[in-house]
Amino acid sequence: MQHINLNSNLEGDYLLYYESIFSTIQGEGGSAGYPTTFIRLYGCNLNCSYCDAPQEDKRKRRISVKNVIDDVKQRTPEHVCITGGEPLLQDEVFPVIYELVGENYNVCVETNGSVLIPDDLHRRSYKYVMDMKCPSSMMHHRNNYENLSRLHCNDELKFVIKNRDDYEFMRQVLSKYDTNAQILLSPMFENKSQVIGQKLSQWVLEDGLRARIQIQMHKILKID
Fold first, then answer.
1. Pick from 2, 101, 88, 11: which is nearest to 43 by CA?
2. pLDDT in tens, 188-209
3. Strand pairing partners for 18?
4. What global pTM score does this model have?
5. 89 in a structural domain
6. CATH number at residue 109
7. Is-contact 80 54, C-beta < 8 A?
8. Is the Cα dihedral 66, 70, 73, 75 positive or negative?
9. Which residue range is the domain that position 37 belongs to?
10. Is 1 inside any structural domain?
11. Taking Cα atoms as reference points, which of 108, 170, 101 lies closest to residue 133?
């Protein structure tokens, strides 16, 4: 990981691959419901079976950190979500994070859990939302379990649950690895049926699990 010099020329020194910058309502996690500006970076190292944000090469562009910050400042939301793709594939994401935090934005970084999160012993003013891949994703073999010990109490650890196998996998992970993160369980969203949501609620109650079930609010509201 490169060291960031915030006094450097942001426009000239750091360029990121990105897809889009847009503002909408956050649909998931602890910030659900808040107006949020999303910075969608380009590039992912996984190929999840249920990916709802596939990326096309024709949408791959470069942008300077300065232009990212300027774009965000022109918008009204105080919350910013850096997503992808996989943001941690680009070291240049950290100047964006630090600049936005310095401007008093509430920043979260969504990561797929396969890339090692920087080991920060001090409390961060931004948070990670990490997706731990379950078997239905077909990418669970790519999980980096060292990340669990690097998550802080203000971070979130998300499991997307499609079936009982995913649920049991999640239970095994939580029983084997310690983490300070808040645990989020997201039932797989299917327009035809929400039976898994009902079953997941029952399983959590039966097991007395220390976790919070969340829904994808943006899909229910039918917004981007």
1. 88
2. 876 555 689 999 999 999 999 9
3. 41, 61
4. 0.91
5. yes
6. 3.20.20.70
7. no
8. negative
9. 10-221
10. no
11. 170
